[in-house]
Amino acid sequence: MQEIELRFQIPPEQRRPLLLWLKSAGSLRSERLQAAYFDTPARDLAAAGFALRLRREGRCWVQTLKGEASDGMTRPEHNVALGQSAAMPALDVARHAGHPAGDVLLARVSELGGEAALHCLFRTDIRRHSVLLTQGDSVLELALDEGRLVADAEAGQREIPVLELEIELKSGSPGALLQLARDFVSTHGLWLEHRSKALRGDLLARAQPAAPPALASAAPWRRGSSAQQALKQLLQAALEPLLGNASQIASGSHAPEHLHQLRVGLLRLMVGLQLLQGLPAKDGWPQEQELRALRAAAQALRRSLSAARDADVQSQTPWQALLDAAWRATGLSDDDAADTADIADGGPRRSAAELLRSFEAQALMLDLLALLSGAGGSRTDSVPHPGSGGALRRSCQARLARWQDALQGSGKHITGLAAEERHRLRQRLRRLRYALEQTAELLPGAQADAQAQGLKPLHQQLGELNDLEQALQQARQQAAQQRRLQAAFALGYLQPEHALRLQQADASWRRWRKRSRR
Questions:
Q1: 199 and 274 share a domain?
Q2: By CB count within 10 A, which of 127, 209, 244, 297 is most buried?
Q3: In 10 A of CB 333, how many CB atoms?
Q4: Helix (H), strand (E) at residue 129
Q5: Going by C-beta distance under 8 Å and a sequence separation of 6 or more, which residues neighbour residue 338?
Q6: Does residue 46 lie within any of the structural domains?
């Protein structure tokens, strides 16, 4: 059995309007769902992508195994009805024998020492209000879940509230599910919750405020891949860095690395889409404007998150702690001290959580899922056309050559460039770096190695230089607009550091430029 569903968080003020909508849509069913989730203390099943639970649905118990969703919506699920019982039945993983995911589970549990290694880590107590809805040829189940996740601890129970909407496709096209989801996002302000109840319950049991950041690493296209296969691989690689990190940030609890990895994931997606633009149209290949629109939306979201990311960077830069210590050592005080955010720059900024809950951000996530699922006529899993792998390789080589030539034309030195010009140079270097990582298996080894060698450290040096220049600009604004003594001190402290790093970056630039010249 394959479960195709999406899960959304509901703003508290939208609970009643959404419940009224469900009541008006059809015969509303309400039931209490109580479940216990099992894993090892080391979370070995979760690490393997499994969620294993016993759940009481009304008067009946069901044992359920779920696997991972490779496309963000479709995940393997196996249910075993256990009949009515006042007490919770004993867990028995052998009930899933014969199911593909169940056989993998059984093997893993055996490696862990058997069923005795599994324990109930947390529980759920949910009131579910559900209704079936027909949309054209598709049947969807909408379920509003409200309740709590509960974990036992030495100091007593810990719990967090649950208020979410699940939309499951019972039959028909994923496009119907995605269109309904878009409507609810627009009218009720819902946002995607990529984190399962199992993951959130596990975090609660471990008293962890957030899941680890999903890393946006390179997923190189394989040699001989068609354009359709390359697009599918690109979109799959973007799922966790985008949806996983976005869900964690939207929850209101995240680390700076979640935002960083989200922005890196957006950029890797943008670079990959740009590499795929302009390929010959084939059956099942998305329209050119579809790829351009997805890239433009990713770029817009990334830019909107820049202010929040810049604030994180400035607070974490290695020189900030040294600067603060040096200022304290002076023994001086700044009577006119004010927070940097007080400088008039167009009004208050929206938080990263607010931005990711917005319709624009959610529409981007849904478009990503739609393209990956093949909704709207775009089939990323279609049969490759003969020679399509060669077309992809030639197109990438030509585009990379243009990008490299543009970089070579930036000049022998970067010391004479304005800060804005160095920032644009850094952006082009970063684009080339990610493109080379994406196409590493498509290009001749010597060509890729010559271009990539030294590119990552140079990109990092320019990034640190850009952070320093932002700090200097901030200090100049404060010194000029507010006459802050501390800002003037920062200028004197940071300028020599900036000059040193500029010379180091210039030397690295000249070495890379010479080595990568074609």
A1: no
A2: 244
A3: 9
A4: strand 119-135
A5: 478, 482, 484
A6: yes
Among 65, 10, 50, 344, smallest CA distance to 185 is for 10
The residue range of the domain holding 368 is: 240-516
Regarding whether 418 and 293 lie in a shared domain, the answer is: yes
d(C-alpha 468, C-alpha 455), whole Å: 20
- Each residue's pLDDT, cut to its tens digit, for the chain (518 residues) gives 678 899 999 999 999 999 999 999 999 999 999 999 999 999 999 888 899 999 998 889 999 999 887 777 788 899 999 999 888 999 999 999 999 999 999 999 999 999 999 999 999 999 999 999 999 999 999 999 999 999 987 667 899 999 999 999 999 999 999 999 999 999 999 999 999 998 999 999 999 999 999 999 989 998 888 888 899 999 999 999 999 999 999 999 999 999 999 999 999 999 999 999 888 766 567 778 889 999 999 999 999 998 777 666 556 666 666 667 766 666 656 544 444 333 334 445 789 999 999 999 999 999 999 999 874 444 444 444 444 568 888 889 899 989 988 888 888 888 888 888 888 888 999 999 999 999 988 877 655 665 677 788 888 888 888 888 887 777 777 776 655 677 777 777 788 888 888 898 889 888 888 877 75
Q: Report which DSSP code applies to 466.
A: H
Left (φ > 0), alpha (ψ -120 to 50) or beta: where does 83 sit?
Answer: left
On whether both 187 and 249 belong to a single domain, the answer is no
Half-sphere exposure of 254 (CA within 13 A, CB side): 26
Residue carrying the six token digits 């100049």: 476
d(CA 161, CA 164): 10
> How many domains would you assign to the chain?
2
* CA dist., res. 210 & res. 59, Å (int): 34
Q: Where are the beta strands (DSSP E) in 154-215?
A: 156-171, 191-192
152 bridge partner residues: 157
Domain shared by 54 and 160, yes or no? yes
SS (H, E, C) 346-404: CCCCCCHHHHHHCHHHHHHHHHHHHHHHCHHHCCCCCCCCCCHHHHHHHHHHHHHHHHH
Query: What CATH number has the domain bearing residue 188?
Result: 2.40.320.10
Q: DSSP secondary-structure letter at 14? A: G
CA–CA separation, 174 and 219 (whole Å): 26
Rounded Cα–Cα distance for residues 492 and 258 (Å)? 33
The verdict on residue 215 lying in a domain is: no
- In 240-358, which ranges are continuous DSSP H helix? 245-250, 256-276, 288-304, 306-316, 318-330, 352-357
